[in-house]
């Protein structure tokens, strides 16, 4: 039997490990609805504010890829509280839509950024026309998709030919010393801090499990290509603690 912190408060049969295996929409939604009120505070605290830089870096890459397009259409999937959508909305003429499955995360996004259009939905079945976006982004969301391949195929479908997907995920450093330090922080320190602030300490036990079990760098670019993208590259950020994937349709 798992201890209390490792089980979901309203779903005692569910452990952080079992959630990562199933990742049903209902369980993921429940977890994010619960962490929503403290999500931003903890995000910035636990990353020492560097998460803002990672999103701004992705938006700067998007700007280059968009080029002279005066009105790029951008979809931010798994937008959560909207911070990556906000970065994308700073691009000249950008028409940004943020979508997420969690109504509580979206309610916060709408409050923070009333100028951006937010909609509820699922990455695996995007409610948008084929070839309708120049950029599809996702910050720290793909790892939670119930069906990753289906989600990435949907990114590909809704992109215009030549459009790009930009995906940010946490990265486990490849350098052995950095990796050891990172995992101590990620598995021992981070869940303790989070449990003092968030209603759902469960979510922060799930986080290291989900990152450790998720395909990274070349493994993930191979998945992007098998989802239909003609090319895919990755850029490690901040001593390989985060990674940006860029894939072209
Ligand atoms: C860690 S948060 C990231 C939020 C935001 N993008 C950011 O940069 O902080 C992950 C988000 O992904 C959403 N999510 C997870 N699976 C999803 C899916 N299949 N479809 C849509 N949203 C999903 C969750 O509801 C949550 O808001």
Automatic annotation (TrEMBL):
Biochemical pathway: Quinol/quinone metabolism; menaquinone biosynthesis; menaquinol from 1,4-dihydroxy-2-naphthoate: step 2/2
Name the Gene3D superfamilies on file.
Vaccinia Virus protein VP39 (3.40.50.150)
**Which domain of life does this protein belong to?**
Bacteria
Quote any Pfam family the record assigns.
Answer: Ubie_methyltran
Keyword entries, A-Z:
Menaquinone biosynthesis, Methyltransferase, S-adenosyl-L-methionine, Transferase, Ubiquinone
The record's annotation in SUPFAM superfamilies points to: S-adenosyl-L-methionine-dependent methyltransferases
What InterPro entries does its record include? SAM-dependent_MTases_sf, UbiE/COQ5_MeTrFase, UbiE/COQ5_MeTrFase_CS
Please give the Gene Ontology molecular function terms for this protein.
demethylmenaquinone methyltransferase activity
Q: Which residues bind S-adenosyl-L-methionine?
A: 81, 100
Task: Give the UniProt record's GO annotations in the biological process aspect.
Answer: menaquinone biosynthetic process; methylation
Please name the PROSITE patterns in this protein's record.
SAM_MT_UBIE (PS51608), UBIE_1 (PS01183)
Q: Which reaction does it catalyse?
A: a 2-demethylmenaquinol + S-adenosyl-L-methionine = a menaquinol + S-adenosyl-L-homocysteine + H(+)
Entry EC number(s):
2.1.1.163
NCBIfam families, per database record: MenG_MenH_UbiE, PRK00216.1-5
Record HAMAP family: MenG_UbiE_methyltr
Q: Which family does it belong to?
A: Belongs to the class I-like SAM-binding methyltransferase superfamily. MenG/UbiE family.
Its biological function? Methyltransferase required for the conversion of demethylmenaquinol (DMKH2) to menaquinol (MKH2).
Specify the protein name: Demethylmenaquinone methyltransferase
């Amino acid at each position: 039997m798992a201890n209390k912190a490792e089980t979901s408060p309203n779903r005692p049969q569910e452990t952080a490990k079992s959630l990562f295996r199933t990742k049903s929409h209902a369980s993921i939604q429940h977890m994010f609805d619960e962490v929503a009120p403290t999500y931003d505070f903890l995000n910035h605290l636990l990353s020492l504010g560097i998460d803002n830089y990672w999103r701004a870096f992705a938006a700067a890459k998007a700007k280059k890829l968009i080029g002279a397009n005066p009105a790029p259409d951008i979809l931010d999937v798994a937008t959560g509280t909207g911070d990556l959508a906000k970065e994308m909305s700073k691009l000249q003429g950008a028409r940004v839509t943020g979508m997420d499955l969690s109504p509580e995360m979206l309610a916060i996004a709408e409050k923070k950024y009333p100028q951006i259009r937010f909609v509820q939905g699922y990455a695996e079945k995007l409610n948008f026309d084929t070839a309708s976006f120049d950029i599809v982004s996702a910050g720290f969301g793909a790892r939670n998709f119930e069906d990753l391949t289906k989600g990435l195929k949907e990114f590909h479908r809704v992109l215009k030919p030549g459009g790009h997907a930009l995906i940010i995920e946490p990265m486990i450093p490849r350098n052995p010393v950095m990796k050891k330090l990172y995992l101590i922080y990620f598995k021992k320190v981070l869940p303790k801090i989070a449990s003092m602030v968030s209603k759902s300490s469960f979510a922060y036990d799930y986080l290291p499990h989900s990152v450790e079990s998720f395909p990274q760098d070349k493994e993930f670019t191979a998945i992007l290509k098998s989802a239909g993208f003609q090319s895919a590259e990755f850029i490690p950020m901040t001593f390989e603690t985060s990674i940006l994937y860029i894939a072209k349709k």
